[in-house]
Amino acid sequence: MTQAVFHAFTDPRITAVLDDIARDARHDDDVMRRAYETAAAWPAPPTPEEAAELCAEAALPVHPQVGTLLYQLVRGARPQLVVEFGTSFGASTLYLAAAVRDNGTGRVVGSELHRGKARRAGAHLERAGLLDVVEIRTGDAREELSDLPGPIGLLLLDGWKELYLPVLRVVEPALADGALIVSDNLPMLPEEFVAYVREPANGYLSQRLPLGDGIELSVRTRPRPTGEGA
């Protein structure tokens, strides 16, 4: 049974674009199956660039439950800078940007490896009337997000799973104390990433939330200096 899409807001421009992305996503299973079959025949695992090309027609939108949480978190925390790794067609960006707009302050910086997807996301944001609060950087997120001035109040990780930890480490110096990190697709995440954010000594308080197919919600805390007593 097809579930009705719940939206966190009533702006018809935004809901229309989200509905269009949801319709595009109906073909995602076929696109991803072909991508996996193609990659399986290669002598080595695909690079992120190769994987992005194989999945260029997959919308891969954030689950509406997760999108609603993103909107809630941004509205509540009122971060001045929201950063997204893995923009794709821009569904999650719409939730983030709508919250920034409704707060009346802040901006969103997204990153997308595939240029075609970045252009498509930009068009979606323009249709929704949200492009003025968003910057989409195209290329390797480890480079594109390395010069953010911070402080980053919310970080969404929703791109190539093996890059979650490298991207987190790149932006870590710019994370605000108390910054929120939402990591989507928890069952697919590398064990080393989950272990990293669940280790208090690394400066995070983290737990699983049963939204969508599972997310990891982490809060950036100040690591205790070495040698400091309890």
UniProtKB/TrEMBL annotation:
It is an enzyme of class 2 (transferase). It comes from the Bacteria. The keyword Phosphoprotein does not apply. The keyword Metal-binding does not apply. Its EC number is 2.1.1.-. GO terms for molecular function: methyltransferase activity. One of its GO terms (biological process) is methylation. InterPro entries: SAM-dependent_MTases_sf, SAM_O-MeTrfase. Keywords: Methyltransferase, S-adenosyl-L-methionine, Transferase. This is O-methyltransferase. Gene3D superfamilies: Vaccinia Virus protein VP39.
